[in-house]
Amino acid sequence: VQLQASGGGLVQAGGSLRLSCAASGRTFSWYAIGWFRQAPGKEREFVAAISWSGVSTFYADSVKGRFTISRDNFENAAYLQMNSLKPEDTADYYCAARRSQRDWDPSRRGTYDYWGQGTLVTVSS
Predict the structure, then answer these.
(1) DSSP of the chain, one letter per residue?
(2) In whole angstroms, how far apart are CA 39 and each of 5, 15, 34?
(3) Is the separation of the CB atoms in 107 and 15 below 8 Å?
(4) Residue 100 has pLDDT above 90, yes or no
(5) Distance between CA 53 and CA 38 in Å, rounded?
(6) Distance (Å, rounded) from C-alpha 32 to C-alpha 53?
(7) What is the mean pLDDT of the chain?
(8) Looking at residue 37, what is its pLDDT?
(9) Are strands 119-124 and 9-12 parallel, antiparallel or unpaired?
(10) What is the pLDDT of residues 3-32, one digit of tens each?
(11) What whole-number distance in Å separates Cα of residue 90 and Cα of residue 9?
(12) Closest CA to 20 of 76, 88, 104
């Protein structure tokens, strides 16, 4: 599956952005989706994940209550709605996909099989 992340940009603190992860090449519902981010000089970290059907969602503590992950298996896309953005949310955001439903650890980078390119989110204070 090929993944294409988009929707990043420059926003003021307190603002909102909606990231999209468009998938092509395979049946989208076969994959769990995760969002990760990487700030300059830092490790790539988990942000949010959603299960194959969309029933289960997972969030990093740092974004819980502010970010919402969703998916539309008919549109072959996943989304990350980001509200109440903070300067510390500034990073490149990546979406990733996992095929197997066994032993899935949503927050672990190594559990994902495919990655898209990043989309840059910059939050100004």
Answers:
(1) -EEEEE--EEEETT--EEEEEEEESS-GGG-EEEEEEE-TTS--EEEEEE-SSS--EEE-TTTTTTEEEEEETTTTEEEEEE-S--GGG-EEEEEEEE---TT--TT-GGG-SEE---EEEEEE-
(2) 16, 19, 17
(3) no
(4) yes
(5) 27
(6) 8
(7) 96
(8) 98
(9) parallel
(10) 999 999 999 999 999 999 999 988 999 999
(11) 10
(12) 76
The answer to whether 1 and 71 have CB atoms below 8 angstroms apart is no
> Which H/E stretch holds residue 24?
strand 17-24
Read off the tokens for 111. Answer: 């559990």
91, amino acid identity: A
State the number of CA atoms in the 13 A half-sphere of 65 facing the CB. 2
pLDDT in tens, 48-78: 999 999 999 999 999 999 999 999 999 999 9
Structure tokens at 9: 């940009």
The neighbour count for residue 24, using CB atoms within 10 Å, is 10
Give the C-alpha separation, 103 to 72, whole Å. 24
- What number of other Cβ atoms are within 10 A of residue 77's Cβ? 19
| Residue-wise pLDDT tens digits, 108-117 | 999 999 999 9
